């Protein structure tokens, strides 16, 4: 081991938490999850962020990453089991764990990290069509602006902090 001072280790923590059923009791109900990200990595525009995403958006993200990553294998998502045995809560929890493992692997991968769709997915609340428009330069903001705008609006962030003394 050499005694050269090392750059501080880059750490990215990503958590998928707090599944919530939206439109409960209606035919178009779905579950979304809170994605909390905390990092000191230069790859990310905002050092902390908090967004809500649903499974369908993860499916879209994985497809996009796969398209752009060439030969780099993209981690698997938890299955879309319609015949799940057990309680709904159990299913949601299993899926939450799977989604978290998926994102943990994705953010460790340099190639996948270079995809701006991933950054907008994790650090802005733009919808999928808006992410596409933004990445293709057809949105009203650049990718960085969209992320910073969301970070400044503190959407998921301030509420978290207010409860503490």
UniProtKB/TrEMBL annotation:
SUPFAM superfamilies: PX domain. The keyword Transport applies. GO terms for molecular function: phosphatidylinositol phosphate binding. Coiled coil: none annotated. GO terms for biological process: intracellular protein transport; vesicle organization. Gene3D superfamilies: Phox-like domain. Residues 11-128 form the PX domain. GO terms for cellular component: endosome. Its main location: cytoplasm. It is a peripheral membrane protein. It comes from the Eukaryota. Belongs to the sorting nexin family. This is SNX11 protein. The lineage of its organism: Eukaryota, Metazoa, Chordata, Craniata, Vertebrata.
